Amino acid sequence: MNQNLLTIFVALTAVAVCLQMAILFMLYLSTKKTSARIEALADTVEQKVLPTVDAAHALITETGPKVQAIVNNVSESTALVKQQVERLNVTMNDVLDRTRLQVIRADEIVTRTMDRVEETTDIVHHVVLSPVRQLAAILTGVMAGVGDLVGNRKVQRARKAVPRDEMFI
Predict the structure, then answer these.
(1) Total structural domains in the chain?
(2) Alpha-carbon dihedral angle through residues 96, 101, 105, 106, given to the nearest 10 degrees
(3) Is 163 among the domain residues?
(4) Does residue 37 belong to any structural domain of this protein?
(5) Does residue 47 belong to any structural domain of this protein?
(6) Is 159 within a domain?
(7) Are residues 153 and 147 in contact, defined by beta-carbon separation less than 8 angstroms?
(8) Model confidence pTM above 0.70
(9) Tens-level pLDDT at each residue, the chain (169 residues)
Protein backbone atom coordinates (compact mmCIF):
# COMPACT_ATOMS: atom_id res chain seq x y z
CA MET A 1 0.00 0.00 0.00
CA ASN A 2 2.79 2.31 0.69
CA GLN A 3 4.06 1.39 -2.66
CA ASN A 4 0.77 2.30 -4.37
CA LEU A 5 0.49 5.48 -2.41
CA LEU A 6 4.01 6.43 -3.34
CA THR A 7 3.32 5.68 -7.02
CA ILE A 8 0.20 7.84 -6.93
CA PHE A 9 2.11 10.60 -5.22
CA VAL A 10 4.95 10.47 -7.76
CA ALA A 11 2.40 10.39 -10.62
CA LEU A 12 0.61 13.43 -9.20
CA THR A 13 3.92 15.24 -8.74
CA ALA A 14 4.85 14.40 -12.35
CA VAL A 15 1.52 15.78 -13.58
CA ALA A 16 2.03 18.91 -11.48
CA VAL A 17 5.54 19.40 -12.82
CA CYS A 18 4.26 18.94 -16.39
CA LEU A 19 1.50 21.43 -15.72
CA GLN A 20 4.03 23.92 -14.31
CA MET A 21 6.21 23.33 -17.35
CA ALA A 22 3.28 24.09 -19.66
CA ILE A 23 2.45 27.28 -17.70
CA LEU A 24 6.09 28.41 -17.77
CA PHE A 25 6.25 27.71 -21.53
CA MET A 26 3.12 29.83 -22.09
CA LEU A 27 4.63 32.63 -19.96
CA TYR A 28 7.76 32.41 -22.09
CA LEU A 29 5.77 32.73 -25.31
CA SER A 30 3.75 35.65 -23.91
CA THR A 31 6.92 37.41 -22.76
CA LYS A 32 8.50 36.82 -26.16
CA LYS A 33 5.47 38.42 -27.91
CA THR A 34 5.49 41.40 -25.53
CA SER A 35 9.23 41.79 -26.03
CA ALA A 36 8.74 41.82 -29.83
CA ARG A 37 6.05 44.49 -29.51
CA ILE A 38 8.23 46.62 -27.22
CA GLU A 39 11.16 46.32 -29.64
CA ALA A 40 8.89 47.42 -32.54
CA LEU A 41 7.67 50.35 -30.47
CA ALA A 42 11.24 51.27 -29.54
CA ASP A 43 12.20 51.18 -33.23
CA THR A 44 9.26 53.46 -34.07
CA VAL A 45 10.25 55.86 -31.28
CA GLU A 46 13.85 55.88 -32.54
CA GLN A 47 12.77 56.49 -36.14
CA LYS A 48 10.04 59.08 -35.60
CA VAL A 49 10.18 60.68 -32.16
CA LEU A 50 13.91 61.02 -31.60
CA PRO A 51 14.53 63.01 -34.83
CA THR A 52 11.67 65.35 -33.84
CA VAL A 53 13.14 65.79 -30.37
CA ASP A 54 16.58 66.42 -31.88
CA ALA A 55 15.12 68.99 -34.29
CA ALA A 56 13.24 70.70 -31.44
CA HIS A 57 16.41 70.77 -29.35
CA ALA A 58 18.39 72.24 -32.26
CA LEU A 59 15.67 74.84 -32.86
CA ILE A 60 15.62 75.82 -29.20
CA THR A 61 19.41 75.98 -29.15
CA GLU A 62 19.49 78.18 -32.28
CA THR A 63 16.61 80.50 -31.41
CA GLY A 64 17.38 80.81 -27.69
CA PRO A 65 19.83 83.71 -28.07
CA LYS A 66 17.61 85.38 -30.69
CA VAL A 67 14.58 85.16 -28.43
CA GLN A 68 16.65 86.53 -25.55
CA ALA A 69 17.78 89.44 -27.76
CA ILE A 70 14.17 90.11 -28.78
CA VAL A 71 13.06 90.07 -25.14
CA ASN A 72 15.87 92.47 -24.22
CA ASN A 73 14.96 94.81 -27.11
CA VAL A 74 11.29 94.77 -26.15
CA SER A 75 12.21 95.49 -22.54
CA GLU A 76 14.43 98.42 -23.55
CA SER A 77 11.77 99.73 -25.95
CA THR A 78 9.12 99.50 -23.25
CA ALA A 79 11.31 101.43 -20.83
CA LEU A 80 12.00 104.10 -23.48
CA VAL A 81 8.30 104.40 -24.36
CA LYS A 82 7.45 104.69 -20.67
CA GLN A 83 9.96 107.53 -20.25
CA GLN A 84 8.62 109.33 -23.32
CA VAL A 85 5.02 108.98 -22.13
CA GLU A 86 5.99 110.35 -18.72
CA ARG A 87 7.71 113.33 -20.38
CA LEU A 88 4.68 113.88 -22.61
CA ASN A 89 2.41 113.71 -19.56
CA VAL A 90 4.49 116.34 -17.74
CA THR A 91 4.49 118.56 -20.84
CA MET A 92 0.74 118.21 -21.36
CA ASN A 93 0.07 119.03 -17.68
CA ASP A 94 2.25 122.13 -18.03
CA VAL A 95 0.41 123.18 -21.21
CA LEU A 96 -2.96 122.63 -19.53
CA ASP A 97 -1.92 124.66 -16.48
CA ARG A 98 -0.69 127.51 -18.65
CA THR A 99 -3.86 127.38 -20.75
CA ARG A 100 -6.01 127.53 -17.61
CA LEU A 101 -4.07 130.57 -16.41
CA GLN A 102 -4.45 132.29 -19.78
CA VAL A 103 -8.19 131.55 -19.84
CA ILE A 104 -8.52 133.00 -16.33
CA ARG A 105 -6.57 136.10 -17.39
CA ALA A 106 -8.66 136.49 -20.54
CA ASP A 107 -11.84 136.15 -18.48
CA GLU A 108 -10.64 138.81 -16.06
CA ILE A 109 -9.71 141.14 -18.94
CA VAL A 110 -13.09 140.65 -20.63
CA THR A 111 -14.89 141.19 -17.32
CA ARG A 112 -12.96 144.41 -16.61
CA THR A 113 -13.55 145.61 -20.17
CA MET A 114 -17.29 144.94 -19.91
CA ASP A 115 -17.39 146.74 -16.54
CA ARG A 116 -15.59 149.74 -18.03
CA VAL A 117 -17.90 149.78 -21.07
CA GLU A 118 -20.87 149.76 -18.71
CA GLU A 119 -19.36 152.53 -16.60
CA THR A 120 -18.58 154.55 -19.75
CA THR A 121 -22.14 154.06 -20.98
CA ASP A 122 -23.48 155.32 -17.66
CA ILE A 123 -21.14 158.31 -17.75
CA VAL A 124 -22.10 159.12 -21.36
CA HIS A 125 -25.75 158.79 -20.42
CA HIS A 126 -25.42 161.17 -17.46
CA VAL A 127 -22.94 163.60 -19.00
CA VAL A 128 -24.10 163.78 -22.63
CA LEU A 129 -27.59 162.39 -23.07
CA SER A 130 -29.22 163.90 -19.99
CA PRO A 131 -28.17 167.47 -20.89
CA VAL A 132 -29.17 166.88 -24.53
CA ARG A 133 -32.61 165.69 -23.41
CA GLN A 134 -32.94 168.65 -21.09
CA LEU A 135 -31.92 170.99 -23.90
CA ALA A 136 -34.38 169.25 -26.27
CA ALA A 137 -37.10 169.62 -23.66
CA ILE A 138 -36.26 173.31 -23.19
CA LEU A 139 -36.29 173.87 -26.97
CA THR A 140 -39.61 172.04 -27.26
CA GLY A 141 -41.02 174.26 -24.53
CA VAL A 142 -39.67 177.39 -26.16
CA MET A 143 -41.05 176.32 -29.53
CA ALA A 144 -44.42 175.58 -27.97
CA GLY A 145 -44.41 179.01 -26.36
CA VAL A 146 -43.43 180.71 -29.60
CA GLY A 147 -46.02 178.62 -31.46
CA ASP A 148 -48.72 179.75 -29.07
CA LEU A 149 -47.71 183.32 -29.56
CA VAL A 150 -47.75 183.00 -33.25
CA GLY A 151 -50.71 180.60 -33.34
CA ASN A 152 -49.32 178.75 -36.26
CA ARG A 153 -47.51 176.01 -34.41
CA LYS A 154 -50.59 174.09 -33.20
CA VAL A 155 -51.75 173.39 -36.72
CA GLN A 156 -48.39 172.03 -37.80
CA ARG A 157 -48.16 169.92 -34.70
CA ALA A 158 -51.53 168.37 -35.37
CA ARG A 159 -50.43 167.37 -38.86
CA LYS A 160 -47.11 165.87 -37.69
CA ALA A 161 -48.59 164.05 -34.73
CA VAL A 162 -48.07 160.29 -34.78
CA PRO A 163 -50.52 157.96 -33.11
CA ARG A 164 -49.16 156.49 -29.88
CA ASP A 165 -49.48 152.91 -31.14
CA GLU A 166 -46.93 153.51 -33.87
CA MET A 167 -44.37 155.01 -31.47
CA PHE A 168 -44.18 151.87 -29.39
CA ILE A 169 -41.36 149.56 -30.43
Answers:
(1) 1
(2) 0
(3) no
(4) yes
(5) yes
(6) no
(7) yes
(8) no
(9) 788 888 999 999 999 999 999 999 999 999 999 999 999 998 888 888 888 888 888 888 888 888 899 999 999 999 999 999 999 999 999 999 999 999 999 999 999 999 999 999 888 888 888 888 888 889 998 998 888 888 754 545 545 555 555 555 5
